[in-house]
Prior knowledge:
The structure holds two protein chains of two kinds. In chain A, 40% of the residues lie in helices and 11% in strands. Chain A has helices at residues 25-32, 84-95, 105-118, 124-130, 142-158, 177-181, 203-232, and strands at 4-10, 13-19, 51-54, 57-60, 73-75. The longest helix of chain A has 30 residues, at 203-232. The radius of gyration of chain A is 24 Å and the shape is elongated. Chain A folds into three domains: 4-80, Beta-grasp domain (Ubiquitin-like (UB roll), Roll), CATH 3.10.20; 84-166 and 174-190, [2Fe-2S]-binding domain (DNA polymerase, domain 1); 196-232, no CATH class. A five-stranded mixed beta sheet of chain A has the order 2-1-5-3-4, sandwiched between helices. By secondary structure, chain A is of the alpha+beta class. Chain B folds into two domains: 1-48 and 56-172, 2-Layer Sandwich (Uridine Diphospho-n-acetylenolpyruvylglucosamine Reductase, domain 3); 177-264, CO dehydrogenase flavoprotein, C-terminal domain (Enolase-like, domain 1), CATH 3.30.390.50. In chain B, helix 9 (229-237) packs antiparallel against helix 10. The radius of gyration of chain B is 18 Å and the shape is globular. In chain B, 55% of the residues are buried. The interface between A and B is large, with 46 and 52 residues.
Amino acid sequence: xxxxxxxxxxxxxxxxxxxxxxxxxxxxxxxxxxxxxxxxxxxxxxxxxxxxxxxxxxxxxxxxxxxxxxxxxxxxxxxxxxxxxxxxxxxxxxxxxxxxxxxxxxxxxxxxxxxxxxxxxxxxxxxxxxxxxxxxxxxxxxxxxxxxxxxxxxxxxxxxxxxxxxxxxxxxxxxxxxxxxxxxxxxxxxxxxxxxxxxxxxxxxxxxxxxxxxxxxxxxxxxxxxxxxxxxxx
Amino acid sequence: xxxxxxxxxxxxxxxxxxxxxxxxxxxxxxxxxxxxxxxxxxxxxxxxxxxxxxxxxxxxxxxxxxxxxxxxxxxxxxxxxxxxxxxxxxxxxxxxxxxxxxxxxxxxxxxxxxxxxxxxxxxxxxxxxxxxxxxxxxxxxxxxxxxxxxxxxxxxxxxxxxxxxxxxxxxxxxxxxxxxxxxxxxxxxxxxxxxxxxxxxxxxxxxxxxxxxxxxxxxxxxxxxxxxxxxxxxxxxxxxxxxxxxxxxxxxxxxxxxxxxxxxxx
Lengths: 234, 266
């Protein structure tokens, strides 16, 4: 079997691996370098679990095969240990219940960090749109959107308008408003929590209300049952 | 899934790239379409020729009245303003809605166009422009009109040993009107129907309807569509039967909304 020697920089350290050309970057970092923080979901570019930073920008590790990586700089989730933005995101993910099983989280964090740095003025709607390439089956996304917004807002407060970072966002183009509206729920604005009877992402507020509803229902049921029982057994 | 074994080549010159294609290698740039097909084993090439390191592969230049866009320019670069002027603003709006940012960071305009997925964005949009694809083969360079490049499902006018080097699009005046509408149930997924309309003052307006499982339908004279979209859209869709009614309806809607956007823009 033909093998290829690939030289690359991984998390700042030079690495040399000998792999089959068909090996993709996620298998390369997991299998050859034991960096198992990068996860594999669909292996065809849809789910985003394998998202890593490749030459400074997020990319799908599963769609990048070994030869292409020769000479590249790769940063996996393990390589963000000392990163200030990533530290803020980790904290926000924890506070906002932005993960449950954690499978999507490494890819989600790499994408989230790119959103924070590239789109400093993003609103919740834009964050949701930008996150659409990372699938999460636990959270329903609300906690993730809130976590990213929390970091964005904290940075906006810390760095008011004199932020020297150039605004990379193209001016919002209203021609696409219709198109956005037709791309479904995922781009729609978040409904305010108050419009939902029980906010599934807000456990502290939600559980007492759920308990109250259950108690009321139970009392009502017991009253009706007692009335019927009394009518049948005078 | 993991791909079937293949050899990897990284040609240093365009001549070397063409020679590799003559030897049966499959060209690859960002690999965002081909990579998935490799992993799913829908594509099993003997060898890949990685074009990303070829000279001027990702260059953008203005040559007279045309903007030459290297085949290796990524969607993300276009989104971020790599193409100058009104043309660049139109293309930025299209690029921003291609798949997802991590895909756009690697995927290229030339790769997407050559792959010729009928639902892909550049396949739907580039034929709207009076421009050419610059193609290199063993016999040298030739130009293919953008509206004749995609010939079918995953099929193009490229010969097996030819490679797409660049696309050339016209420099547009500030007064250009543009409408583009596509339907995706989820942001980033492949479109179910795409339409776009290009109206350059003093020229015949053009329109494209795409993502209907057939090559893009180019409406070389879209004056009637611009004037009466509600009446004209069904006429355009009629010859495409038997299209499932919901897709025909989406096609009509796409045309009508693309026209509405082109009209609303000052």
